[in-house]
């Protein structure tokens, strides 16, 4: 009983000290951070981004995460939530379900009006998660497993952030990052007014914006960075799920702050969020012809008239090294800005949000005339793809005219009305998506427009990919509106792209005339940007005036209507004489630092169990007492999990696991384990584990040679 009383006294003392700390803290805000696994199916599902039907997932390069940040002035005041997810974009259907579950958990603390979910735009994530048909066609329909992984991971990250809300200070810093992005549609950019272009040094944004978050004691909690660059360092031949350059940057930053914690498990959360990336490529060597190595045609991005031969490559010798370089560049600059940040944010936490039916928007132009936006449609140059991932069938970027043959094919699906053709001019319509309703809507018409405020910092959450100049105009418009209404001139505005829904691209009117890929994918017509500027000006005015924003029309919820043609896993079997987890190709007895270990196991379909917050592999080292400690999982850059189907009829498959041994890896004894789940013909799921032989790691040849020289 005495021990119980002493324990209670100690507990009450701790609670009292915590209360005093919170009351006495001089911190300006309350902040919570959280992280959750959103990795989708690593087998059989088309990957989202390149619209390449042959790019089917067959393993994991790096796991993908949701990173959540909650901001408030006090524990009981209104909050805003910013979430960055390693996904091609943040689907509206995912946000709807997330908000629904958050309301069930927390009441009206978190709603569609104060929660922003923004995608990093990795092109190496599982596809089929949109409720709009066009985006799921190459995935052969909706993939509920991938959709649910996104929902669950976002919820997990927000719940974690909610539970650790604490006094915090937020510091802002802005710098410049060079050698990490180029404009992939320079001819369209050059069509913007010369006077406007003269205001900027580059044809892409080089600015990188960092929020540094520390608790009341000055201990780091989190970091958010915004930098405009496509996550297309991993190209359209990749079949491993990957968070690409931004995910790698997050992993590097979190390792720097969390030490030995595995990815996704440390207390410090670092998000490398997306911005106005529409015409921005990470492939800094630029586009060249695959057959000759010569530069591509500048206007059409073709080689000898063929679009498929024109491809841009990154700074590295292959896509993995390019991802590493661009990710590391972002990490190093963000870390520098984080460490040197000294502008402390102060002021209200606020938000404004509305739903907008885009085709119904009337825009007042500079000459006073009014125009109405168009129903969605995709142009010919959309089918040409980009230099990051070319399309097929010899479509060309910059197409302002149509083809009778392709118009015939188009009209078999839906012929555009004369009004649509006129509205979208000079875009030649290839897919009249806005006038197709079977089996359900092909592209969104009602989208979120939203801004968040944390003191002098304003996040402009946009539902698509703004081009460089479109993003600049948006940032400047919101800034001038807010400052003109009394906000501090120290206010900083940033674009958070691919947020809350995906309405493709938003280019300037001038860029639209050139009809590069981005203009052809500006789905509401040539005045799409003007409508966005008009809407966000109104939201900014309402925020500055303290007035509420209208709810707007409800977006559809079509999850119950979704169709899919991807069959489920029927069954798995092991080859005769083998069992699940059997080693087919074992590790060598020994390796040197800097070399690669490869082990192949009898496996089963990864769709049986996504291993959420878990792993399909471990690399373990043996301690002095004979126990094993996990050094790496499938979340790490250094490991790769390849899933290989060897017999569709028999349901046989293999897992190849590789580990690139770091040059400074500790010497000792190691093993690799593979974890999986098999499915019987009767539907029973059974977990299994496979083990490689034990192997040793010794010093690298160069190090051993140098040591030998010292002994001579």
Automatic annotation (TrEMBL):
Zn(2+) binds at residues 121, 230, 465, 505. InterPro entries: Ceramidase_alk (IPR006823), NCDase_C_sf (IPR038445), NEUT/ALK_ceramidase_C (IPR031331), NEUT/ALK_ceramidase_N (IPR031329). Residues 29-534 form the Neutral/alkaline non-lysosomal ceramidase N-terminal domain. Binds 1 zinc ion per subunit. The active site is at 281 (nucleophile). GO terms for molecular function: metal ion binding; N-acylsphingosine amidohydrolase activity. Pfam families: Ceramidase_alk, Ceramidse_alk_C. Keywords: Hydrolase, Lipid metabolism, Metal-binding, Signal, Sphingolipid metabolism, Zinc. One of its GO terms (cellular component) is extracellular region. Its EC number is 3.5.1.23. Residues 1-26 form the signal peptide. One of its GO terms (biological process) is long-chain fatty acid biosynthetic process. Its cofactor is Zn(2+). The keyword Cytoplasm does not apply. Residues 539-697 form the Neutral/alkaline non-lysosomal ceramidase C-terminal domain. Belongs to the neutral ceramidase family. This is Neutral ceramidase. It comes from Arion vulgaris.
């Amino acid at each position: 009983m005495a021990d119980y009383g002493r324990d209670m006294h100690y507990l009450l003392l701790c609670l009292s000290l915590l209360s005093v700390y919170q009351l006495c803290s001089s911190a300006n805000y309350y902040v919570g951070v959280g992280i959750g696994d959103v990795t989708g199916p690593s087998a059989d599902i088309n990957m989202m981004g390149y619209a390449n039907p042959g790019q089917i997932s067959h393993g994991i390069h790096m796991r993908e995460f949701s990173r959540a940040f909650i901001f408030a002035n006090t524990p009981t005041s209104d909050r805003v939530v910013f979430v960055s997810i390693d996904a091609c974009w943040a689907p509206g259907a995912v946000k709807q379900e997330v908000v629904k579950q958050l309301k069930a958990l927390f009441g009206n603390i978190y709603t569609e009006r104060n929660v922003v979910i923004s995608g990093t735009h990795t092109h190496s994530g599982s596809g089929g998660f949109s409720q709009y048909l066009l985006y799921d066609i190459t995935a052969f329909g909706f993939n509920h497993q991938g959709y649910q992984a996104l929902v669950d991971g976002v919820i997990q990250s927000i719940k974690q952030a909610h539970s650790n809300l604490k006094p915090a200070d937020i510091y802002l810093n802005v710098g410049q990052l060079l050698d990490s992005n180029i404009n992939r549609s320079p001819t369209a950019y050059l069509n913007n007014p010369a006077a406007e272009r003269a205001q900027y040094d580059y044809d892409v944004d080089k600015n990188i914006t960092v929020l540094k978050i520390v608790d009341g004691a000055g201990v780091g909690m989190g970091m958010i960075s915004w930098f405009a660059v496509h996550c297309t360092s991993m190209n359209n031949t990749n079949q491993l799920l990957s968070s690409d350059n931004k995910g790698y940057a997050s992993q590097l930053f979190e390792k720097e702050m969390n030490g030995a914690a595995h990815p996704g498990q440390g207390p410090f959360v670092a998000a490398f969020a997306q911005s106005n990336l529409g015409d921005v490529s990470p492939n800094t060597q630029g586009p060249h012809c695959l057959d000759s190595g010569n530069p591509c045609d500048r206007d059409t991005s073709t080689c000898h008239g063929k679009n498929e031969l024109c491809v841009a490559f990154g700074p590295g010798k292959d896509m993995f090294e390019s991802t590493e370089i661009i990710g590391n560049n972002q990490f190093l600059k963000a870390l520098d800005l984080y460490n040197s940040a000294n502008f402390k944010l102060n002021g209200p936490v606020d938000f404004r949000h509305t739903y907008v039916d885009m085709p119904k928007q009337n825009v007042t132009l500079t000459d006073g005339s009014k125009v109405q936006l168009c129903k969605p449609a995709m142009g010919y140059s959309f089918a040409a793809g980009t230099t990051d991932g070319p399309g097929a069938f010899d479509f060309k970027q910059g197409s302002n005219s149509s083809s009778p043959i392709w118009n015939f094919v188009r009209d078999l699906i839906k012929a555009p009305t004369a009004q649509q053709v006129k509205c979208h001019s000079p875009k030649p319509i290839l897919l009249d998506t806005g006038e197709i309703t079977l089996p359900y809507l092909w592209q969104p018409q009602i989208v979120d427009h939203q801004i968040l405020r944390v003191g002098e910092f304003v996040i402009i959450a946009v539902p698509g990919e703004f081009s460089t100049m479109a993003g600049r105009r948006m940032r400047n418009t919101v800034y001038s509106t807010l400052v003109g209404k009394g906000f501090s001139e120290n206010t900083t505005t940033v674009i958070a792209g691919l947020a809350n829904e995906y309405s493709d691209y938003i280019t300037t009117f001038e860029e639209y005339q050139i009809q590069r890929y981005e203009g052809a994918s500006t789905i509401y017509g040539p005045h799409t940007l003007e409508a966005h500027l008009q809407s966000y000006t109104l939201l900014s005015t309402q925020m500055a005036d303290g007035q509420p924003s209208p709810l707007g029309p409800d977006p559809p919820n079509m999850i119950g209507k979704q169709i899919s043609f991807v069959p489920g896993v029927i069954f798995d079997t092991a080859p005769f004489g083998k069992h699940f987890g059997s080693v087919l190709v074992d590790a060598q007895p020994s390796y040197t630092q800097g070399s690669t270990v490869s082990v192949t196991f009898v496996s089963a379909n990864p769709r049986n169990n996504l291993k959420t917050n878990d792993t399909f592999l471990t690399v373990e080292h043996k301690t002095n007492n004979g126990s094993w400690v996990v050094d790496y999982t499938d979340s790490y850059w250094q490991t790769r999990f390849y899933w290989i189907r060897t017999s569709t009829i028999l349901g046989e498959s293999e897992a190849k696991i590789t580990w690139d041994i770091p040059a400074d890896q500790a010497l000792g004894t190691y093993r690799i384990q593979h974890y999986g789940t098999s499915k019987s013909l009767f539907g029973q799921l059974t977990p299994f584990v496979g083990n490689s032989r034990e192997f040793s790691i010794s010093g690298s040849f160069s190090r051993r040679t140098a040591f030998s020289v010292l002994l001579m």
